[in-house]
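User: Hi! I have a protein structure encoded as tokens and I'd like to know what sequence might fold into it. I'm fairly new to this, so please keep things simple.
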């Protein structure tokens, strides 16, 4: 439309008509207060994940930045220790972005339906529109795709994404290919990810703490029945010893809350009550030496909620995984 408008602009009448008829842009929402955390049901980025997403995650860096300032720590280091890949942070830095500019990072994948099918969508929501969008596109090495949409083929150092959709001045959706931009193509599904499966929506709305600064959650599925999961465990992370535990896995969630006392919350759902009790017994044993740890659940579920030093968040989760290897 812009090229057409410029062509018409050769005559003053054309310019005047175009200016009078073009739609008025919607007002830009003011950024939310620094450090404020939104629950999953209010995250706009979830609406741009594919409907078949079965693993989702989110990070709200503002909360990490505020906590880091309050405790005289490095926000980048805290994000990495919480489990966010350093390559991802490096990629954002290479794009000219800083942590304070980012409102949220929301991502998702559809894992397991085929051994060699890789899906990934990453939604970058900014606190305000970029001062120089052309420079951002240049750093992406963006090449416009045909079709009139604001979609680009891109090269992001450190990340295997190859396409990006500019949804708005503050929302950019990255993916491996066009399949990962399915939600962006239709204009999004709406705040909170209502398009997602019932199991994942339930996990996000009922188990992820509303004030979690970072979390990852899965759908309720029989994971070991998925060829891709077994292939990834055996050949990707090379942890075949996880398979017996995964045989009972149905779903799970891990979240980091950064309040006055940071906490780690875990929720696990398995396929039978006997295994659920085993998980609860394990959590109870871990809690025996600290009265501040909360744990429980019933039937096929178990939860663990404990004080945590965010600098050790990822290490703590790794310890849980090492314990799984011993079972």
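Assistant: Happy to help. Inverse folding works backwards from shape to sequence: for each of the 327 positions I chose a residue that suits the local structure. Here it is:
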């Amino acid at each position: 439309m812009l090229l057409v408008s410029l062509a018409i602009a050769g005559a003053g009448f054309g310019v005047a008509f175009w200016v009078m008829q073009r739609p008025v842009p919607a007002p830009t929402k003011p950024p939310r207060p620094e450090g404020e955390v939104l629950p999953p049901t209010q995250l706009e980025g979830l609406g741009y994940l594919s409907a078949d997403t079965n693993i989702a995650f989110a990070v709200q860096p503002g909360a990490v930045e505020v906590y880091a300032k309050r405790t005289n720590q490095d926000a980048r280091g805290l994000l990495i220790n919480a489990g966010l890949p350093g390559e991802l942070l490096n990629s954002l830095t290479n794009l000219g972005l800083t942590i304070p500019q980012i409102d949220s990072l929301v991502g998702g994948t559809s894992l397991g339906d085929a051994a060699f099918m890789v899906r990934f969508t990453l939604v970058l929501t900014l606190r305000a529109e970029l001062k120089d969008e052309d420079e951002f596109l240049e750093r992406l090495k963006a090449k416009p795709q045909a079709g009139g949409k604001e979609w680009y083929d891109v090269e992001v150092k450190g990340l295997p994404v190859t396409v990006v959709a500019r949804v708005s001045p503050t929302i950019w959706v990255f993916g491996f290919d066009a399949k990962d931009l399915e939600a962006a193509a239709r204009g999004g599904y709406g705040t909170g990810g209502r398009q997602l499966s019932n199991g994942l929506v339930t996990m996000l709305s009922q188990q992820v703490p509303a004030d979690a600064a970072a979390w990852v959650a899965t759908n309720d599925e029989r994971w070991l029945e998925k060829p891709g999961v077994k292939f990834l465990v055996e050949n990707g992370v090379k942890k075949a010893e996880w398979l017996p535990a995964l045989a009972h896995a149905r779903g799970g969630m891990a979240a980091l809350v950064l309040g006055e006392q940071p906490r780690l919350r875990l929720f696990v759902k398995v396929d039978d009550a006997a295994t659920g009790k085993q998980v609860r017994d394990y959590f109870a044993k871990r809690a025996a030496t600290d009265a501040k740890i909360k744990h429980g659940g019933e039937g096929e579920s178990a939860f663990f909620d404990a004080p945590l030093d965010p600098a050790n968040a990822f290490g703590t989760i790794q310890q849980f995984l090492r314990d799984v290897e011993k079972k």
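A useful reference point when you look it over: The first helix runs from residue 2 to 8. Feel free to ask if any position seems puzzling.
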